[in-house]
């Protein structure tokens, strides 16, 4: 599913499955389905063409038609899914789904009734498809797909190329840092060519920075050039521009225009062969583009320098070094803002405006382009107009900023546009958890399962790509990316597009919301306000086709859940109830629900016994929810992939039935440890396991649990909180064989007498994160840890004295070493060695590096 084509990509294969499976359809009905599928495929192709055209170049009638198709595609999918849920209650993506449905139809209905239901469904979809086809022909979509190109606009970045250095604010420190990176370090040859890439989100000032450095350093080189690339470069023009910058007198000759790309590259290499050059390539969007450009530059051992700028981390990785440009500090932001608005020394003459300025600057988040654009917009306006701007939903009139940010958005492939747009549901400055976000994407159908990868792995790739493109900011802890934030200006852009495309509806603070022209709200997000029922006409409910209902930091009021017949995502997180507890009546009626998030929610009066009816549920998050026990019917949720129950207990015999689980977070009491340990071994698909275990005096009650860990052959992340063996008896761990798939092992409270034999390089070749508490660490044990080939992060609590000489083959990939309550002392050693002394003030650990 993507923003332009809506659910059409899902509808077509679902119709196709009806033809393949054993429904024993009448000939006439089969023909209708075949004809309908072909019509929809034709419409889908046209929509994909629309998706490739920049929005500003689309004819208004085409936009209207595409919007109609998207809305109707949702309705079509709802009709099909409603039928499938009635007869089977399983998800359409299951390859065996239609066979089971056909058998069940035979049991529940007569053949004639089943056929009539399918016929009614196809008739409904066919009528909608005919309307779309008629509008397609009426609007002549294929003929007027692209309107006449609009008059060219001036790139807002052009100003940065010609700004005087004295006008720049906050440029001094970044300039020094960038010039330092351009310098050769250590034993690098002084004649080596060096390339540095400046990376950061659009509008951060990358072009301004490199232009300032370029102007300062270019006098030290024989020849220089500064060119911009853009999203869709004309390589012939690009190479000619570089040549003209290098030597205008020679390369302005009209004959240069007849040369092709290869000839221009050859000319560049010939010209640069013996020269010390300094070239800036600004605004590169793709690795493939850079790989083509770089053929023009030769390593001639003359100490040449290259700078590139990009929003894409993958492009920056091609350089020798990366400079990550940071937002302006608040004081610099304020100086830049005041200089633009009030001139002079960059001070505010009005205390009241000073207070408003601080709130506006917070919105700009240190992005120079946003600050400059806002300052220009507010110049000469009254205090009342400043307040209006501050209270508006986003800075709609800051066209330069939005133009630059929108370039990054419209450069995304369709599936990433949809995933990014979903983030418009979150409030400003909200810390968005990665795992729950990906689960919502999966529930909405935005993520397609790969041949050898699951939904979450594919979704995680999407998440990482959005970080790579500088559209979201990663949130890390101990070297692990656990979530993200969205810059305020990016969020404004996403909310603007969401509103225009009827993707996500966000009510105002007073609860009012704009109903889209279709009369149907597809996704609804409440933010920092009361999440309460919306009044509607009983014959036309705008929320009757809701797919996602999200509330963050809200006061929850009783919602009539039964009205949301096709809801796929229900996330009520960080909410409180004025009544003191949360009502979840009719939750069991949400038969399409895939994601149920109730994390950090207040007390739940009663969890519905009928939750077992939610056969499609994939994610259930009850972390920090005040609920004592789940009903036993939870064991019927056999498609559950992720289960986080926090302190809520799960009845015995339930966990072993949830064989699709890939992610489990649970707290186990001492009297149920044995039972849980036996059930755990049945979860063979488990990849992430977080367990909080209560201490039991008899360590043998943990034997089944330890034994089951060895059966989890797909496990990648293991977090165990609780000391399940004492330091004098760790034979359970020594007999354990952990799966080689394990990447993350977190044992912060498990006290080991010595390093367990299950932790060694050959047994855990993929382990990159390790937290351990070892009382006695001898020389051999440290060698074992040092030999872990992928170990990036090590947190080690150790109480022993040992000296170890470590050669270059040890700790090859270690990036972070944390020794809690310890002192680290570096002591010079003879020759080329260094001596590390580590201890807690009482006992010391010495590591000699050679």
Automatic annotation (TrEMBL):
Domain of life of the native organism:
Eukaryota
Show where the Disease resistance R13L4/SHOC-2-like LRR domain sits: 545-825
GO biological process annotations for this chain's record?
Answer: defense response to bacterium; innate immune response-activating signaling pathway; plant-type hypersensitive response
Q: Which residues form the Disease resistance N-terminal domain?
A: 7-98
Alphabetic keyword roster: Coiled coil, Leucine-rich repeat, Nucleotide-binding, Plant defense, Repeat
Domain (Disease resistance protein winged helix) spans: 426-493
GO terms for molecular function, please? ADP binding
Span of domain NB-ARC: 175-342
**PANTHER family in UniProt:** DISEASE RESISTANCE PROTEIN RP (PTHR23155), OS12G0273300 PROTEIN (PTHR23155:SF1116)
Query: Its family?
Result: Belongs to the disease resistance NB-LRR family.
The protein, known as: AAA+ ATPase domain-containing protein
